[in-house]
Write a structure and sequence with these properties.
Length: 355
């Protein structure tokens, strides 16, 4: 499929065999199939999944893989079977960057299955929209999908419940979206962060926020919730955060969803530890040391349904993007942003680069 307005080559940030990054100036523009869209990338967001993808990128001969997950841009081309999207439309989505020379967000063009992108409401900029997809999709999978926390699904007329959800790491990107979605489902939310982010998390709907470094944080959470926590999400996923999160659960135990597989640490037998990996919803099979995650049609179907829901939640004020930290310099600035993430210098905000 060709178009006179689409070049044959583009700039892309690729992973070299030694795991360093370089801007390729003559990388082929991806070719879409009948069910995909080709998007001119306007803004991209950076996050921990990009660091993991960089370390895991294949070192195979030939074209180098493109890094990057979160993107927002303008539809340039639609596949022959696509009826839901059109050229010129503002859209956002995410891909599993770092695996392929044909699919990665950190490039002038990105391709995606059409039913996994969502139209950007007028109230959102490209930069804000770029910050949302992988975080919100991860939280939807974690909070609502069968086999995860299985909270009641979102509804416009949701009733407020006298029940709590605990979220460790509320100021992280996923933590912020988890707070908003849990509140939109009618739950009260108790979360942890550094004190400088308390006001932000309260503005997103958190009922109670505590300093994660406070030695008495477990007792304080138990006191405010009446020792009733049955649902939890650890948005950080380290061994110590998983251990602390389990200790916060009430006497009946429950389910703790963690976003990091390698650090799965059990300290309570009555708290079920569950791992979720959003990429299974992209139709991808993911292998990790000691674990195999097959592609999940159920996860894909849930993502497709939620893609149609995001604009409405944004317009209703029930889903807000992360605070944005803009880096100037286009593709060349992404390495700087990844270094900031690696060094732990990003808190309560999402790094976004305009291309």
């Amino acid at each position: 499929m060709s178009s006179p307005s689409i070049p044959n080559y583009m700039k892309a940030l690729v992973v070299q065999p030694d795991k360093t990054l370089a801007v390729a100036h003559n990388h082929p523009v991806p070719t879409i199939n009948e069910n995909e869209v080709l998007v001119k990338t306007m803004s991209v967001a950076l996050g921990p999944p990009d660091l993991l993808a960089l370390k895991a990128a294949p070192s195979s001969p030939g074209l180098l893989p493109i890094l990057g997950c979160d993107w927002a841009g303008e539809v340039m081309q639609v596949g022959t079977n696509v009826t839901t999207r059109k050229a010129g439309e503002r859209v956002a989505g995410f891909v599993h960057g770092g695996r392929s020379a044909e699919r990665g967000a950190f490039a002038e063009y990105v391709k995606s299955p059409a039913d996994l992108v969502w139209p950007i409401p007028e109230a959102l900029s490209f930069e804000e929209a770029a910050s949302m997809s992988i975080g919100t999709y991860t939280c939807v999978q974690a909070l609502y999908h069968k086999g995860r926390l299985e909270l009641p699904l979102l509804a416009d007329d949701v009733s407020q419940k006298d029940e709590w959800v605990f979220i460790y790491g509320g100021s992280s990107s996923c933590g912020q979206y988890a707070i908003q979605l849990a509140r939109a489902s009618g739950f009260k939310v108790v979360t942890t962060s550094s004190p400088r982010n308390f006001d932000l998390l309260r503005s997103l709907g958190a009922t109670a926020v505590f300093d994660y470094r406070d030695p008495a944080v477990v007792d304080k959470v138990k006191a405010v919730t009446g020792d009733t926590i049955r649902y939890g999400l650890d948005a950080i996923g380290l061994s110590d955060t998983q251990e602390l999160s389990q200790r916060i659960f009430g006497s009946e135990g429950g389910k703790l969803l963690t976003l990091m597989w390698a650090n799965k640490t059990r300290v309570r037998e009555d708290v079920e530890l569950i791992f979720t990996l959003v990429h299974t919803g992209l139709g991808l099979t993911i292998d990790m040391p000691g674990a195999h995650f097959p592609a999940s049609p159920e996860d894909t179907a849930q993502m497709v349904a939620f893609a149609a829901t995001i604009p409405r939640l944004v317009e209703q004020g029930r889903l807000k993007p992360n605070p944005i930290r803009r880096l100037a310099g286009g593709l060349a600035a992404i390495s700087e942003g990844l270094n900031l993430l690696e060094e732990g210098k990003v808190s309560g905000e999402k790094i976004v680069v305009v291309l």
